[in-house]
Specification:
3-stranded antiparallel beta sheet; alpha+beta; 20% strand
Length: 322
Amino acid sequence: MTTKKVLAVIGLSIAGILLLIAVFTSWYTVDESEQAVIITFGVANETVTEAGLHFKMPWPIQQAEILSKETYSLQFGYNQNAEGEIVAFDKETKMITGDENIVLTDLVVQWKITDPKKYLFNAEAPQDILHDATSASIRSIIGSSLIDDALTSGKAEIEAETRDLLASLVEKYDIGITVLAVKLQDVELPNEEVRAAFTNVTDARETMNTKINEARKYENQKRNEALGEKAAINSRAEGQKVSRVQQATGDVALFDKLYLEYENNPEVTKQRIIMETLESVLPNAKLYIMNDEGGTMKYLPLDGLQTAVPPAAETEEEGGGN
């Protein structure tokens, strides 16, 4: 075979190889959960988010970098190995609270790629930057929080503040990442002895709050009882007041009538008042009317006569009258 033929074969082989490369590198597929960045001679100039088969210039003119649209999870302070076991990194999670206590804090950050160009070209290792920003954010928030809040009721607020601070840092770094959520996994004390002491303090505080609530409940009960008794006393006093006023009004009316009789017949009225007073003071006594010389005046014993008259006589008298 002559040299020309050899060169021709080599040329055709090279052309065939180049053609195969052009065919196989000119088409790429993007799934529903993916997005692509088209890089032309090392410069990102197009982002593809539509799913399907797409065409581009063959390599090495253009290449497609495929990235996921799904949400990623950054595990801070621990990791899960291939066997499913949790491996903790205590040095990474050891932090000092605002009241100078040491706690171990691990969390999960959910994030996604929202700008593929910036994610690929604005930073060499954007996930490492996110990890460092997460560490700075949680340490800052824990450092300004009390240990009671970090271990008990303040976790939700710490999560929200950490998410806001982390989102602002990532936005400043401009690496094409958006932080979606921050979830605290564990906030605990560094050893068993300290944890037991803190548990005792927490139990004592809960007991104190329980006693305070019971005392307030007893206070409210006694206050309500006192208010009810006060209302009852006021009601009785008001009723007595009305009764006394009505009685006084009746006494005044009676006195006015008596005074009118006294003006018409002073002597008769005087004697009548004396007799009525004596009858009310001495209801079972027999009364004798004395004259001015001290002698007993003769009187007709009406009460004796009333007891001596038999019922038949009274009936005859009533029949004779008819």
